[in-house]
Amino acid sequence: MTRCHFYRRVCDLPAVIEPPHLGRIIMPATHVWALMMPAHLGQAVKIEIHSRNTDLGPILSHPRSRRWTYLVRPDLPDEDRLFAELFRLNISVVREGGTIALPSPGDQCAEFRCWVEPPRCIYRPSGLAVIDAIRACIDPGRWQAVTRG
Q: 136 to each of 62, 78, 125, 140, 142, how far by Cα in Å?
């Protein structure tokens, strides 16, 4: 089974090879969104989510840019305050209309993209749950958990 086929069939990621001569695998952000953040924050968020006994879902590393990407469910509200908060933390949201690049066999020695936590099924965590974990890592006492009410 090719990697792109695995992404589509097993993980429900709408992956395509684009451009074909380079073998780069991308997917449109439709029913899967992404939260991209500095790697050091991504590592802290991974530890925080793990400490909650919650599944992590797929996480990508971009070693050259030192960023991590969490693939999430598209449940983030369209609120200026939320996006301003994320912007101040150097976190970007890839939402409907965006494109997410996935690790592909064409990536040289995993210096472009590699999996920290590879996708194994269709599970992706809630975007709100990942933001809750980000807030806990930034300032543990300040934020009320958005996913716990």
A: 23, 21, 16, 4, 8
